[in-house]
Amino acid sequence: MNLKKIQHVKLWMVMVVAVIFWTIGAGFFGDLAAKSDETYEGLKIFADVIQLIEKEYVDDVESKELIQNAIQGMVQSLDPHSSLLPPEAFEDLQIDTKGKFTGIGIHITMKDGFVTVISPIEDTPAFKAGIKAQDRIVKVDGKAVKDLRQAVNMMRGPKGTKVSVSIMRPGEKKAIDFELIRDVIPVVSVKALNLKPGYGYIRLSQFSGTTAKELGEALSKIESNTVPLKGLILDLRNNGGGLLNASIKVSDLFLEEGKILSIKGRGKKNTKEYMATPNSTNRNYPMVVLINGGTASASEIVAGALQDQNRALILGTTSFGKGSVQTVETLRDGSGLKLTIARYYTPSGRSIQAKGIEPDIVLKHKRIDISELQEEGLLKEKDLLNHLEAEPGKKEDPQSDTKKPKSETQEMDFRVGPLSLEQLQTDNQVMRALEILNSYDIFKSLNS
Fold first, then answer.
1. Alpha carbons 206 and 97: distance in angstroms, whole number
2. Ordered structural domains, the chain, with CATH
């Protein structure tokens, strides 16, 4: 190995030692005298391995890449949620938690080898230009698009800058070109509508810095309707979590007092209790919270708090079971270190780590036909032998009642696309939750 490479390796070794010291914390130095021999012996072995790889490995390798992979392996060996985030991944995480980014405003996925639009985000450049669900993005600024990461990086950029997008649309023979002006795109995490007079539905897709504010505005709108709110469905299914503080604020919107959460880590800094505070709006209406295996982290904090405080009935299937808290620290090269710092516990002291939140009513999810909402299970005219057709000479389509499974893209659109009453009416868990709330109101009136 030449002198330049040796100096390069030594420089990175110094950085590795600094990262190790920082990761382990100040307590490391108190024990340094007792552990110095063992620690530095390990670091010498580490340096020996890098030098051997640099000298003997069949292909040339970058020392920086070796060091980053070593740090990643060290951190990931701690638990599944600790990791080293490269600058691009760290930037994506910051975008998700801040609640906005600059781009054209579309949800995309890979389908049949193409970057495919799930849905445009309402009131964004893509939406206004006429880009539609199922459009395939083939070029951005004249360059062919091959994968999601590449497409995202090419379409994002400073506000006010131009970007051209070429798409192939089902039914069109030629590509359609769009010239768009990038803008600030809000990452909307709250969507709401009225299922029927007096009964509201709110879906939370993540917990970002704007989620509590969005939720407060959605609640105010639903609560201000002419018909008083008799019940609310809070949908946390497939919500992978987000910011701890956002989950505390969301829980606090529905609780007047008592504990929301406690976290326990090493030292006072990472050990804390979070308490509910009185709200200016009295929200004493009944609630049903929907959860499933994709409900994780911050979502489980909210579900656990509302369940333990007897504020809501939990319906669905057992949640993911992530009962730990992570912090993200910025490193000198622009990457981020995501590190688990504490476990969290629900108000009753439950740890849901690797267990999850168990629903009060277990109900597996399925898509249903609108016809199933009508007197399900009863014999109908069309079931009778030799029944009359709707019109003379016209046979019913035998496939008309056949259930067609939704594609992955359609399911994704259901989660991130615009809400519609028709969509929710095909969701058995939402409909069951509505029945429960409606029944509660009926029984309450019988006892009054």
1. 9
2. 3-77 (no CATH), 100-186 (2.30.42.10), 190-362 (3.90.226.10)
CA distance 54 to 62: 8
Task: Give the C-alpha separation, 68 to 74, whole Å.
Answer: 10
Q: What is the 3-state secondary structure (H, E, C) of 230-296?
A: CEEEEECCCCCCECHHHHHHHHHCCCCCCEEEEEEECCHHHCEEEECCCCCCCCCCCEEEEECCCCC
Cα end-to-end span (Å), the chain: 88
Residues of the chain with pLDDT > 90, as a percent, come to 63
Q: Give pLDDT tens digits for 331-369.
A: 998 999 999 999 999 999 999 999 999 999 999 999 887
Provide the pairing of β-strand 199-204 with 231-235: parallel
Whether the pLDDT of residue 383 is over 80: the answer is: no
C-alpha span between 387 and 178 (Å, rounded):
54
Residue type present at position 90: F
- Label the pairing between strands 361-362 and 313-316: parallel
Asked whether the beta carbons of 143 and 135 are under 8 A apart, the reply is no
Catalytic residue among 166, 322, 335, 427: 322
Residue 322 known to be catalytic = yes
Q: DSSP class of residue 229?
A: P
* CA 335 – CA 87 distance, rounded (Å): 4
Catalytic residue among 135, 308, 413, 427: 308
The string of pLDDT tens digits covering residues 76-109 is 999 999 999 998 889 888 887 887 889 999 988 8
Marked catalytic residue, from 297, 299, 319, 324: 297
413 as an active site residue: the answer is no
DSSP 427: B
297 is catalytic: yes
**Residue 367, both tokens:** 């898509």
3-state SS class at 136: strand
| Separation of alpha carbons 241 and 352, rounded Å | 14
Q: Do the beta carbons of residue 347 and residue 261 sit within 8 Å? A: yes
